[in-house]
Each structure stands twice: as C-alpha cells, then as structure tokens.
Amino acid sequence: MSLSKRxxxxxxxxxxxxxxxxxxxxxxxxxxxxPAVEQPDAVxxxxxxxxxxxxxxxxxxxxxxxxxxxxxxxxxxxxxxxTEQTGVRVDIAPAGDAGATVNQAILTKDAPLGDVLFGVxxxxxxxxxxxxxxxxxxxxxxxxxxxxxxxxxxxxxTPVDFGDVCLNYDRAWFEESDLEVPASLQDxxxxxxxxxxxxxxxxxxxxxxxxxxxxxxxxxEDGYLDFWSDxxxxxxxxxDGWSEAYYEEFSATxxxxxxxxxxxxxxxxxxxxxxxxxxxxxPTGVIEASCFRQVEFAGILQGTEHEDEARLLIDFLLSRExxxxxxxxxxxxxxxxxxxxxxxFATHAVVPDDAYQLEPDAIxxxxxxxxxxxxxxxxx
Amino acid sequence: MLVPAAFLLVFFVLPVGTILLTGLRxxxxxxLGALPGIIGDPVVARVAWFTLWQAAASTALTxxxxxxxxxxxxxxxxxxxxxxxxxxxxPFVLPTVxxxxxxxxxxxxxxxxxxxxxxxxxxAAPALDLRRTVTAILIAHVFFNYxxxxxxxxxxxxxxxxxxxxxxxxxxxxxxxxxxxxxxxLVRPAVSSAAAIVFLFTFTSFGVVLxxxxxxxxxxxxxxxxATVQLLDLPLASVLALLQLAAVTAALLVYGRLQRRATxxxxxxxxxxxxxxxxxGERAFLGANLLVVAVLLLLPLAVxxxxxxATGAGYGFDHYAALFGPQRNTVLAIAPxxxxxxxxxxxxxxxxxxxxVGGCAAVAASRPGWPGRALDRALMLPLGTSAATVxxxxxxxxxxxPLDLRGSRLLIPAAQALIAVxxxxxxxxxxxxxxxxxxxxxAATLGAPPRxxxxxxxxxxxxxxxxxxxxFSFAIAVGEFGATVFLARGxxxxxxxxxxxxxxxxxxxxxxxxxxxxxxxxxxxAAAIALIDRLRVGQVGRF
Lengths: 380, 543
Hints:
The complex is a heterodimer. In chain A, α7 packs across α13 (360-378). The longest helix of chain A is centred in the first third of the chain and has 28 residues, at 2-29. Helices cover 41% and strands 17% of the residues of chain A. By secondary structure, chain A is of the alpha/beta class. In chain A, strands 1, 2, 3, 4, 5, 6, 7, 8, 9 and 10 form a ten-stranded mixed β-sheet that branches. Chain B is mainly α. Chain B has helices at 2-24, 34-40, 42-75, 81-87, 96-107, 112-121, 134-157, 162-170, 175-203, 207-213, 220-230, 234-258, 270-273, 280-309, 318-324, 336-366, 370-380, 387-397, 411-434, 437-445, 450-479, 495-503, 508-534, and strands at 76-77, 275-276. In chain B, α7 (134-157) crosses α9. Mean pLDDT of chain B is 85; it is low at 537-543. At the A-B interface, α1, α2, α3, β2 and α4 of A face α1, α5, α11, α16 and α18 of B.
C-alpha cells in the first residue's frame, strides 16, 4: 500500500487548506452568500483539452470547416498538400451518420455549421436539394468524372465517390454446408435459406436503407412488401446498426451463426487489408445481384463566407491524390475515371455492372412511406 | 441559487425550448393541430406504455439488487472494498454498443450458462436465448444502474450512527425490527432519490433498448431520436418530447410526494461506521452480494477484456500493440493517448462544473421554501429529456451571438455536466438535510457568520458525500454520448468516439482494437474514480 501512503501524506497537510478553499469557492460561486459578489468565472476557468491548434503563423489564413459524416477520413499528407497548394486550412467536423449530417445542415441553414458539406448520398440528395442547402459550382475537374455519377444537372453538388451496399456471404460456411450461394434477391425467400440472413433496420441504418431500396427497385412499390413478409416468414434477423449485424451475427466475422449479412462490396477487401497476417483470399464474398449503388457528393453550403476557397476544396476532392486515397481510408471507389485502385482493391473488390440505383427524386418521394411499410411488415 | 438557475437556463431551457418551439410552429405560429392525432396514435400509445413499464420494472429490479449492495459497501469493511466501489461504476462509462456486444455473448445460445446446462443435463438441456427480449433489457439496466443505488444510498448509509442501531439491539429488537424501525426511515429519502434517478435513466434508455431489445421494441427516446435525427420531422419530435417531458414531470411530482422531510440525526464519519465482518451470517450476506456483483457486473466486463486479448491464435496483447503502434496517418485516426487525455480532461472539467452547480443547488434546496425545491426538481429534468432534443437544441439555440458556443470546447463539459448535476444534488441533499439544525444554531450563537457556519459545520459533513458524487459525475461525463455527439467532436475525439470509429469498419483487427480501447476506458475510469474516492475533503466526526 505504498501508493496510499503517497496519497495521504500531502493531502493530509493540505486538507484544511483545501477545505477552506473549496468551501469559500462554493459559498461565493452560489451567489447567495454575498449577492454583491458574482463569480460565474469559477466555472469558466475550465479550458478544453490540450491546445492542438497549430501556431498562428499566418494570421490571414482562411480555415474552411468541412462538415461531414463519421466515416469520412483522409491521410494527413494528402490533406496537407491542399493546404500547401492553396494556403487554406481545413477543419473536419463530423456530425453523425449521413442522414444525421444532412439533417443538421438543414436545421442550421441560417447559421451554417461549416463551409463545405461532404457525404450527402443519393438516398438523401433530394431532401438536401429541396432545402436549397448548396451554392451551385461546376468544377473543371468534372471533366474527368464518369458522367453516370453526375446526378444534379445544376451542379449544386459534386460527386466524389461511390460504393455498393451488397449482401456478403461467409465462404467457409457455404463450402461446408454444400448449399449454393443465393444468386438473386428472390432466392432469399426460399426455404433453403431460412434463418441465414441478417439485415439492418432502414430507419436507423444507412446500409439498411440502401438494401430496402434495392428490394423496392427489384419488386416494385406493389411487390416489395410481399417479398419482405416472405423474408420475415423465412426468419430474417433485423439489427439496429451495421456493427451489431456484422460483428455479432455474421458467422464469418462475429460470434454469430448467420452466413448472410447486408454490408458493402468493399468489405471483403477490408477483411484482407485489416487482417494480421493478411490472407490470400478474403473469408467473405459479395452477392452481386443484391447490390445498391450509393454515390456520395460534396457541396458548398449556402451562407459560407469563403466561397472561393470552398470551390478550391471541391476541386481538390476530385484531384488524383484525394481520389486515389479514398479506397483505403473510406473503403469506397473513386469517381474519376483514371484513378488507380490500390492493389488490395484491384485484387479483391467487386464492382457490379448493374447495381440497383433509384433516381434521387424517386427516393425522396418514397423513402418515408417505404420505411413505414417495411416497419409495419417486418418488425411490428 | 443564481448559478444553477443560470446554468439550467442556458444549457437546458433555452436549447430545448428553441427546438420545441421550432417544431410546434411550422408556420410561424404555435399549431397544436397535430397533437391529438399523434397522442391518439395506437403505435405511440404502445411505445409510451412500454417505456413506462420497462422503466418501472428496471427501477424495482435495480433497487432489489442494489440496496443490499449499498449496505455492504457502506457498512462492511473488507479487503478490496474501495477497488470494488470504483469497479461497479465502470459500466456507466462504457458505450452501450460495447456493453450490448458483451451481453449478446452472455445471453445467447452459446453463453456460459447454456454450456453449463449442457454439461449437467446433456442433450436434454434447454438452449436459453435471451437476446432481443425484455429480460435482456432489464438485466442490462440493472448492470448500468447498480452503481446509482450503491453510491446514492451508500453515501448516506455510511454516515448513519451505528449506535442508534446498537441501542435498539440492546433494547431487544430483532435485526429485522432494527432495519424497519431505525435504519429504513433514516435512509428512505436517499432510496427514493436513487430510485428517481434510475427511473429517469431507464425511462430515456436508448442504446440498450435498440441493441438488446431488438428493433421491434422502442422507447419514446428511440422514437424521438428517429423523428429528430433521422427524419427531421420536428413537429412529431416536439409532440413526442412534450409527452416525454410530461411523463417525467409527473414522475418527479410523485417522487416529491415521497420525499418527506428527512429527520435530522447525528451523523458520523464514514470511516467510523464501517465494521469488519464478524458473524457467520454477515459473512454469508457479504458473500452473496459479492457473488451478485461478480456475475452481474464483472462477468460482462470480463467478456470485453477477453475479446480484447483474443487473437486469431490464442491470446496476446496484439490489439493493444496495434493501438499504440504506428497509426495509419489519417485525419481521423485517433491516437489512443489523445483520446484518453481528452476524455479525462473533459471529464474532470464536467466534474468541477457539476460539483459547483450541483453543490449550489443542493444548498439552495436544503433550505426551507419552494424556490430551492423547484430548482432541485427542474435540475432533474435533463435526465428525463431525450439527448437528441438537447443536442439539436444546442445546434439551434447556441448558434448566434451572444451565445455562439457551437464548436466551443466549453460546451462539451457543460453538456456532460447537465446529466451529472442531478446526481450531485441527490447525493448531497439527503446529507445536508440530515445536518442537525442545532449545530448551525449553536455555531451562530457563538458568533460565527453564515459563511463560517457553512465552512465549519456543513462543509466537513458534506465533504465525503461530495467526493462520492464527484467520482460518479466523472463516470457520467466520460460515458456521456448523447448530447455531446452533436457538438464539436472532430477536433477532440474522446474514448467512446474512438471506439465507435473502430467498430464502424470491417476487419477483424478493428474489432479487436475497439475491445482493447474499451478495456483501456474501463481501467482509466476505474483508476480515476478510485483516486477521486480517496481524496478526502474535510474531516467528519470532530464533534
């Protein structure tokens, strides 16, 4: 108990002093011991954690705030090249998942949270455009972008990356069981695959919503609920978020016993990349017939005081450095046609040719209703 | 009186009022047309009912399990007591997603319990699967809130003069009679306080309900979060939030009726009331309680530690090495050391704020008269208010001068303190109220000015309880992940944020590192609380 000795001796000497100090502080701070003395500062002496801000060697330097979702990431060096080239610093302000980020931007339209927003995807695009969140800007760098990703003709948003939400399957499980891997969404309702699938609640999960949209496109507004009620009869498991499904229920990565899960086309390469040691083959595969394409956009927020600098940042998001950095930081694919993929992606990633992809306007019109229908059919 | 009132006004009334009004005034004037439709909706009614009864059941269960534990940790002296007091507070700081993960493992078909059943019964063993059941929710709520009972009730219990009980025993009362006639009336105010806090915590339960109850079960908190954050349907969110506020206010009124004035009583120093365990009965009681703590609290924590050490081939410190090893040099890669420092600094800041605000409020509430009482009740409201409401309220209300606090680092400790203040008040108030008024009068008669009376009489007696409150405030602040989620967190990520980031990615090493980070979070918190508990302010028992 030498620790306790060390701890009691000095404090024993300081005890009376501490008591007097603390008692006085409380008595004074409460503002009722002596009404003439008010010291709200007693609280404000608290400063935040250690000062991380770099020295202000350039007092005139503009700092842009990039509002984004929690999954945004980029290598320090890549972002530093932007500051070197333009003299503009960038602060990253994560604001939750993609939906929450857009909603916060809408809520705070009159006093924007930042200058540029990254991470609005095609499932939320129509709402963001209807709310007139963005200033139009046509970047010259769009010349190198595959035109299929340019979903707003007025260029209020600029495509930056895309990724597919797809069913992942546990390779080892299917090899052992002698079952065929399901080849279509319709297959999932067959007796053969009862109790094997985990999906996420589309009301609380972005990949969950994407998978619901895939079923709406496949079976139509009249048929998708029948499909889901068949899935329910087939013992589909619903979790609230991706982590829980992937790490708790999926047999390839979690403790669970379900060999089919809604995840991303980039999950298998990630399973290789983040393993130690790295295996030759990913333990999981992608069912291409189940994929829904998500495109992520960036836009300049209305009300920014740094529109010129914001345009530079949009251009930078389409630069080769940034585009080639995307796969291993955010596990998505570049939209610029000649960007090089890292090896682990080139080897293990699947990009389906004909992923499901609803029009943003159609999604905007139907989203709430589809989620409500899903909720009534699957979990109530 | 001024400080707590101002604090509540700026950090609660203003943000929540702003967001509610925004929702209720879609066309610029208050429109309650949607109200009957939403309240009459059978789905809303079902959600409200479920919210209410699960909170009531969770509270009852937590009291049942926690009260014996409170007695043991307050009145029995045994080796490792202080360590245990710190350990039971650890659940509070863990993100629910991590705890959920441990509980899913312990309640699923491959749990140790089922393994044991199979070993005993062979093939005839039932496979118990409690995942996504109400039972799982209740168990997790007890896990999270056990410490609330132990710390709030124990804080007073440890000050009760054992001579009262001894006198009653000498006069021939049985143990049960002593408890019923002597101890219970004295600790009852603290018990109802603790119960109120647990009720509010579980009433606004979010993560536990989603993860362990499955998506089919929703509390009002879950629906408010959806309406606010996912749908941005502010009219719906406002009506639901009003419903929640109404329910919480009603609960607080009931609680107020239960809170009769405590009798003043001679208080003794905590150190002098704890006894070594002597008789066989006491030993058995202690053993039973330790067993409960081991199974209910330590086992889930052990699961997380086990997972943090599990590598592909056996066990090792690989995930820890990876955490502290060379980081991928990305903008949002969080060096664990930074995350730990941020968490601790914010936590300490919030603790200071909570102690000052809560201390003042407790002093105000301990004086006769309604303003203090009203303030005390009002400070409980944040516990029963949706984090989404408060968080989005911050974004709206604190966005313009003179209160442009968005992105300010002061906002985070303030938001965290909001949740910790009620706990400070609840811990201090029963002790303050129990101070014999005659002591104060005697001091005043002897010529002591009010401030001196406070310093010489009240403060030493309150010191110990304040420290208990401080340790807990720290835990609450470090674990708070609701309202602060909506505030500046890019620049100064905390440990829960780091865990979330790791869990949001595929790849086996990310999961292992998340578990390692959770383990570090547990250790750091336990150490901090143990240190805070050791600090002694003032000496009790000089009279």
